[in-house]
Amino acid sequence: MTIRGLSVWFSERTVLDRISFTACPGRIVVIVGPSGSGKTTLLRAVNRLNECFPNCRTEGSVELRLNGRDGDIYRDFVPLPDLRRKVGMVFQTPSVLPFSTRKNLAMPLKVTLGLDGARLSERVEWALREVSLWDEVKDRLHADASTLSGGQQQRLCLARVLALEPQILLLDEPTASLDFKATEKIEELLTKLKKRYTILAVSHSLSQTRRLADRVCVLRDGRIVRELDHQHLQDLNEFQRLVEDAF
Amino acid sequence: MKTATDLLLTAYAWFCAIAVFLATSLLLGFLLKRGMGVIHPRLFFGDTPWFPALLGTKPVFEGIWPALVGTLALVLVSSVMAIPLGIASGIYLSEYASARVRSMLGFAVDVLSGTPSIVMGLFGFTMILFLRKTALPQARPSLFLAAGCITLLILPYVIRTTQTALEAIPEHIRLLGPSLGLTHWHHVRHVLLPSASRGILSGAILAIGRASEDTAVIMLTGVVARAGLPASLWDKFEALPFRIYTLAAEHRSVQELDQGFGMALVLLLMTGSLFAVASFLQRSLEKRWKTT
Amino acid sequence: MQEHARTRIPANHVQPVRERWIRRSLLIATGISAGAILFIFVLLVYFCLPLVNSGGMSSVLSWQWKPFGGEFGILPMCAGSLFLSVFALGLAFPAAIGICGFATVLAPRSVARSTLVMVHFMTSIPTVIYGFASVFLLVPLVRDWFSTGTGFSFLTAGLSLSLLILPTIVLVFHARLQQIDPALRLAAEAMGLTPVRQFLHVLVPAASKGLVVAAILGFGRAIGDTLISLMLAGNAPRIPDSLFDSIRTLTAHIALVLATDSQSMSYRSVFASGLILFLLMGAVNFLIRRLDRGPGENRYENGH
Q1: Which residues on neighbouring strands pair with residue A21, listed in sequence order?
Q2: In a domain, B52, yes or no
Q3: For residues B291 and B286, what is the distance between their CA atoms, to the nearest angstrom?
Q4: Number of A:C CB contacts under 8 A?
């Protein structure tokens, strides 16, 4: 993924100002910054979700390699629904629908990919295993998904995204609403998944950033003010200082 | 530090609450007392045995069964027309229309909802006159006409609650559909509608309740005091609220009056239970969004 | 602050044929709903036109209603509707504020909640039931207590009507009160004001627009109601001299004429009544929309 000169405006207000950076599979990039610095907008620029909001204007390019081809997503080199399947997003609050656990997973597969029957069940099971949820829910696949705990729901949302076979994962403060144990589980998962996917995450917690990130982008007022590499993250004090500096 | 005014006003507030509570309880209690004893198969079917009366093979003269069936038929026909139309309009206004269109059409729907029911009945009446002059010279008041006017009456309820229920869906669910790559319609159908289902359902139930209690519209479009079971959509019919009204104005015996109380109680039970279901649904919907 | 997210189809995205058809059919459905109101208006005007043409307007807009004497004035009915609704509002509005104050600051929470449940339930009681119960409860009461007339009077109808519109006013105003920023309520508490003062001097002014909207909606409901005045007000087509006189409202007039009279001029008066009511409610709606969209109203509402 290569982002070049990305700027986003909402009704004349500049939210992102000429952002440029790169990311690739095997590395988790974490975006940090004070509130209102544009972190979520940056994430949403990669799956073009900003366009769902009124008065949005975007300039610059986001180049991805999808299905073996390179291209700028803002030049429509893939249709929008396909793009959003290849670039999966998980939100801060678990967005679970009022169906059973199984249907939550199966619905997008059926509706967008047209999967059915045995292939559908296979994919459902595979996705649940990927997020280590299979053993916990296999006996209550048909129970309403709201009966799952917060951490389980969030993992379900992740499974739902993985089932569509994306190449890039966008995570908007995925553990913000979860307790310590659940957070731990998800962080483990992410570390396992990074080998196969390009992961771009937003985090509010500096300690989580230290645990997960291979690279850190510090955003302030819509601009990248600092990019930190793995060595900067080793020493806690130096890390804190660098980040506070940038804030 | 409480002054005399404070105490006075507090007493006033308590007085208001208690007064209204008493007035309502008096009203309901009175109906209950006078109507309770009458609730009995005889109320419904008179002297006719209940089974043939249910099947419609034997006519019921002294009972309220025809009126009850009339009301149910009216509600059924108008709901079948109003609910799908209303939900579709609500979806369009909430998810497809531009802001200007939404404002204009929303105003039209609001005016529709503010139309007094008697004016709606008048509209139905004028439809007959209009049709008689133009396309259908044999046009006459009928169950279908009444149901059509009731449809227009309850349509705004369904539209508004559908719109509100959809607009209440929190942002992260609204973004879910597009983020999974669903097309707009799939997003509406598989993400938004299930999430708003309870609100929409409660709106439908409210509409049904309103259809069952209306008197003014049907007075002018086809209801009569005595008609037996509605033979077809194009005939005149009886209805509970109208029967109640006529009995209040003119009852020929204590028995008839008692019937009136029985009917009032039956109608009250009907609307009351519909209301209870609708508000239960509405509250569980609100609770759902609060915990997310 | 970002607006409520509406998922829009991006301009450069090709819509599959199915999407377009769905969009079209939904538009048609909405069009039918909105078109209905236009149709109603057109039809009413159409049937009123002969009045204007034949100069019958002056006859209809007069003060005497004696159909068999050739007089078809509906102004007494207009006055009847107006006076009755204002009276009902005059009773219901202060009581509604009292109840809102009661439920918001004065009563213990469980009592407040049950009060609101009761008020909510009252909205589900059919009008005809209010009328029916009043005929056998209120009418004898008025007749005996005040020992005048038959008991079917302006007062009887007014009392019943005020009970009918009370829940509307309470619920609308209460909803507005709930939307006030909790921080404001805390601030009022912190200022050391008694609950009554908090309510009167802080909460009510903050939701003042809601007060007006609630009153207008209540008034609209009162004017549009048919059965209560039909069953309780006596239906004499005169301007009332006292509370115990019998009056007739526009709504009851329509019902009575169409049920009994057969002269065409009477019919015309009915269409005029209908049109007046329709326009009145249209104006009410317009007013409310205007108020709802006014600037500065959101200052005290949640989120700012």
Answers
A1: A3
A2: no
A3: 9
A4: 20
CB-based contact A53 C10, cutoff 8 Å: no
Identify whether residues C202 and C229 lie together within a single domain. Answer: yes
Interface membership of C5 toward A (CB under 8 Å): yes
Closest CA to A93 of A175, A208, A202: A175
Residue C69 structural domain? 65-300
DSSP label at residue C2: P
Please count the CA atoms within 13 angstroms of the CA of B291 that sit on its side-chain side. 10
Are residues C147 and C234 located together in one domain of the fold?
yes
When divided into structural domains, chain A yields a total of 1
**Contact residues for B35 (Cβ-Cβ < 8 A; gap 6+):** B258, B261, B262, B264, B265
Number of domains in chain C: 2
Nearest CB to C7 within list A10, A52, A79: A52
- Report whether pLDDT(C10) > 60: no
**pLDDT score for B224:** 81
* Residue C196: partners with Cβ closer than 8 Å, 6 or more residues away: B2, B5, B6, B9, B10, B13, C101, C105, C106
Q: Chain A closest CA to B170's CA: distance in Å?
A: 10
Write the residue in C30, C255, C271 that is nearest to B216 by C-beta. Answer: C255
**Interface test mutation site (partner C, options A48, A51, A56, A89, max chain C beta carbons within 10 A):** A51
Domain range holding B252? Answer: 66-291
Give the tens place of pLDDT for each residue, C190-206. 888 888 888 888 888 88
Lowest mean pLDDT, pick from A1-5, A129-133, B275-279: A1-5
B29 domain-assigned = no
Top-ranked range on mean pLDDT: pick from B76-80, B279-283, C28-32: B76-80
Alpha helices by DSSP H, listed for B250-292, are: 254-291
In a domain, B30, yes or no: no
**Which domain CATH number covers A99?**
3.40.50.300
Residue B292 has pLDDT above 50, yes or no: no
Are C72 and C162 contained in the same domain?
A: yes
Encoded amino acid at B5, one letter: T
In a domain, B205, yes or no: yes
Claim to verify: residue C149 and residue C277 sit in the same structural domain: yes
* Domain span at A216: 2-246
- Tell if the CB–CB gap between B116 and C231 is shorter than 8 Å: no
Cβ neighbours of residue C138 closer than 8 Å, sequence gap 6 or more: C151, C156, C159, C160, C232
DSSP A30: E
Query: Using a CB-CB distance cutoff of 8 angstroms, which residues of chain C are in contact with residue A10?
Result: 2
- Non-local (6+) Cβ contacts of A106 within 8 A are A120, A124
Give me the CATH number covering residue B202: 1.10.3720.10
Average pLDDT over residues C90-103: 92
| Residue C12: inside a domain | no
C27 and C113 inside one domain: no
* Number of independent structural domains in chain B: 1
Nearest CA in chain C to B248: C132
Tokens of B70: 């009339």
Put simply, the answer to whether A93 touches B292 (Cβ < 8 Å) is yes
Q: Do both C28 and C121 map to the same domain?
A: no
